[in-house]
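Q: Given only this backbone (257 positions), what sequence would you predict?
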């Protein structure tokens, strides 16, 4: 399927591994010019080299800390200098501290808010004006099932991620007339480093994994590529009537109606 994004420029955050890297691979294979960013330069460069093996356009790697306004400005400035503008933004936030209510403090919550809501706001503030001026844009944020239901021992995520979804829903009504569409991806249990970290913390990792798997109706864990396929579709011309939605890519595990 031709997604109609060849020649478009896509900025993908947190793209040195996992879901972000898979999104970069998918969009690059569709002919988009891809700008990848993450905090760690070495791992980011290695990921960019891998993406270049499937790319049909340009691939650029720019280290950036999304909790830094200066880094975000430098990232967007560099992308715009190289490509003239950003057409697609795939916003993937960092992973906040694990723990229940009694295990976190006020600073933990502030940190989670900074890396999710504030980082998304800054990225949108820098990229939406250009998209609106050019009359075309796609913005997708990858969140977690905390957008739909509470997750044990992830109170910081539950308290902040719905705020990003709310921001996207609000903006989806404000900028759609200018040709810019915003949507949220709500992943289920995806086999990423974050999930593997939960396995490592469990007293019995095999029992932990079996218990998580048992709750997934399709009978398997998701892979980063499952999310990337959905992201690429939402970024495409084929999704021109999808706006302001929160799409669950979860194998049926989320219980919310």
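A: Predicted residues:
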């Amino acid at each position: 399927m031709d997604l109609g994004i060849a020649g478009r420029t896509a900025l993908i955050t947190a793209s040195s591994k996992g879901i972000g890297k898979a999104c970069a691979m998918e969009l690059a294979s569709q002919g988009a010019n891809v700008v990848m960013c993450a905090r760690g330069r070495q791992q980011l460069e290695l990921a960019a080299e891998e993406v270049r093996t499937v790319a049909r356009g340009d691939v650029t790697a720019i280290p950036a800390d999304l909790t830094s306004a200066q880094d975000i400005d430098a990232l967007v400035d560099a992308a715009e200098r190289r490509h003239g503008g950003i057409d697609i933004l795939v916003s993937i936030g960092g992973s906040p501290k694990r723990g229940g209510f009694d295990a976190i403090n006020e600073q933990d919550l502030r940190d989670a808010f900074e890396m999710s809501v504030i980082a998304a706001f800054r990225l949108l503030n820098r990229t939406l004006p250009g998209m609106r001026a050019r009359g075309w844009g796609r913005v997708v944020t990858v969140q977690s099932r905390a957008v739909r239901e509470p997750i044990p021992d992830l109170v910081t995520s539950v308290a902040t991620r719905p705020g990003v979804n709310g921001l996207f829903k609000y903006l989806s009504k404000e900028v759609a007339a200018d040709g810019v569409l915003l949507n949220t991806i709500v992943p289920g249990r995806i086999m990423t480093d974050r999930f593997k970290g939960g396995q490592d913390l469990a007293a019995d990792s095999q029992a932990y994994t079996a218990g998580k798997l048992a709750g997934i109706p399709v009978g398997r864990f998701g892979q980063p590529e499952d999310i990337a396929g959905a992201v690429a579709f939402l970024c495409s011309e084929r999704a021109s009537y999808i706006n302001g939605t929160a799409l669950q890519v979860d194998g049926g595990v989320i219980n919310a109606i």
